[in-house]
Amino acid sequence: MSALKLKALLGDYPNTQALKQGKVRSSLVESDFQPFKEGEVPHDFFKAVVAGQYDWGELALMTVLQAISYGYPFVALPVALHGRFQHGQICYNAARGELKPGDLNGRKIGERTHSQTTPTWVRGILQDDYGVDLSKVTFVTITPGHVPEYQEPANCRRADKGKKLVQMLVDGEVDAIVGNADQNPNFKTLIPDPAAAGLAWGKKNGALMVNHIVVVKASLAKEHPEVVREIYRMLKESKAAANEPLPKDGIDKRPIGMSANRRNIEIAARYAWQQRILARELKIDDLFDATTRALD
To answer: Is the pLDDT of residue 174 over 70?
Structure first.
């Protein structure tokens, strides 16, 4: 029996390198990986993944949740390609005065995309841990999301064409942006000591803020569960081959398996539902099937 040929999207990370370079092989599946031109990154192709142009591959976690909530036929694999604590991913312009998380009600926050994974994690932090009323914040976005059916809430507005988040913050058009403070010497993280705040959040919630995970088409999962298990095996072996040292905080930022990812995804789904990113509330079983739920 010849290997099943599949079209795949997968970024170039330490944990995917062995697989993409052919060092991890399979007799069951042969993946044709999307090549990247200079400057291209995986999220440039996420709309194509949502549209069903790939058999399996990488998607942002909030895009997975959103797509499944709108009925797109995907099954998730418990494979986090990367994650981090997002407390350092919102900043303000200190040249215009001090700003604290509790000051955000009635203010404007710039975001690349409202339904993007990082802003959704950040908004969840602000709402749950700092008492920010998200309905009283105006969100200024640059681009729409990856799921075309989704409509942004009434307190979102699109920035004028050509606008950039960093310059908008410099010019005072927004009070904070979702992004790194190191983009400008006057920018400071909105949340003090974000590294410590992130570790405290992780300990409190027993979770990691995952960014991108892996999905397969539901038809592939139904017709070829053995191939889905094989994709998981290869991803797991590819991660092991990277032999990445743990970061200083000792937390694996690329967790793999249901035991390692269940809590991460549960909290992501809760944040997404609270913020009305989803068409319907999702439970963990809505993302996985019997095959992928058993992967560990």
So the answer is: yes
Whole-number Å distance between alpha carbons of 28 and 56: 14
Cα–chain center distance at 143: 16
- 251-280, pLDDT tens digit by residue? 999 999 999 999 999 999 999 999 999 999
220 and 191 housed in the same domain: no
Give dist(CA 30, CA 52) in Å, integer: 18
Q: Residue 66, Cβ neighbours under 10 Å: how many?
A: 25
CA 88 to CA 90: how far, in whole Å?
A: 6
Domain boundary among 155, 182, 204: 204
Mean pLDDT of the region 163-187: 97
Same domain? 158 vs 179? yes
Q: Which residues contact 188 (CB under 8 A, 6 or more apart)?
A: 91, 92, 94, 181
**Which pLDDT band holds residue 1 (cuts at 50, 70, 90)?**
low
- Residues pairing with 109 in the sheet: 139, 176
Provide the domain limits for residue 130.
Answer: 86-204
Q: How far, in Å, CA of 114 to CA of 43, rounded?
A: 15
